[in-house]
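User: What would this chain look like folded?
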Amino acid sequence: MLPQRMKEWEPKIKEMIPSYGESLMENPELLHEIQTSTSETLGLSKKKS
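Assistant: Here's the prediction, encoded as structure tokens.
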């Protein structure tokens, strides 16, 4: 059942996990975007003075 529903679920999965189905090694811009977002969400970003 799961393989048949993947096409239906894929847009929501990509919304939740922007890198789903993407190679971060081949897309450094996406990698940077995800790292920045994750750091901000976790409160790991350096504060600008």
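The CA atoms of residues 19 and 27 lie 10 Å apart. If you want, I can go into more detail on any region.
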